[in-house]
Amino acid sequence: MHELRAATRRDWADIVVLNNGEVPHVGPLTDEQGDWFLGHATVTVADPGDGAVGALLVTMVDGCGYTSPNYLWFTERYGAFAYVDRIVVHAAQAGHGLGRRLYDHAVAAGRAAGKPVLTAEVNLDPPNERSLGFHRRYGFAEVGQQVDPRYGTTVAMFALSL
């Protein structure tokens, strides 16, 4: 069973490698971004017991100063919210319920912070069918779409009432 724990700066290199293996389904990360994310977001990793990163989840709340166009889209429409910036599960760990456990963790944290909604976006072009299906099964509703100007991807905007 993977332990969910807060990421440390020591984890960041593994986080970058895991994350960047899933581009374009998630935006790329660099080592230089580690201090910002670890200081302004909640970065949760699933550790299989050996200190490795088997999966990661990056969440944040309204007002954190993030400048992602997708985060700003939610900022313009919701007064208070929790936001899933990215979730990545290592291919070797897929199918073991880690995505659901990480989302359950995000829901609990959003509720504890008093946020009324959990938000996320998923690529429509290029399509990320697996993630689209996951979000719909989890109970998210599509609340809009936009083209992310950084990458030219079209994303579906999702919200889940907390």
Record the SSE blueprint.
Blueprint: E1 3-6, H1 12-20, H2 34-40, E2 42-47, E3 55-61, H3 69-77, E4 82-89, H4 98-112, E5 117-125, H5 129-138, E6 141-148, E7 153-161
Parallel strand pairs: 4-5
Antiparallel strand pairs: 1-2, 2-3, 3-4, 5-7, 6-7
Strand sequence of the main sheet, in spatial order? 1-2-3-4-5-7-6
- Top-tier CATH class: Alpha Beta
Uncertain spans: none
Structural class label = alpha+beta
- How much of the residues is beta strand, in percent? 25-35%
The major β-sheet equals: 7 strands, mixed
CATH topology category name: Aminopeptidase
Distance between the termini: 27 Å
The H/E string reads EHHEEHEHEHEE
Q: Report mean pLDDT, rounded to a whole number.
A: 95
Using the 3D structure, state the CATH architecture: 3-Layer(aba) Sandwich
* The CATH homology group name: Gcn5-related N-acetyltransferase (GNAT)
Number of domains: 1
Estimated radius of gyration: 15 Å
Outline type: globular
Number of helices: 5
User: How many strand segments?
Assistant: 7
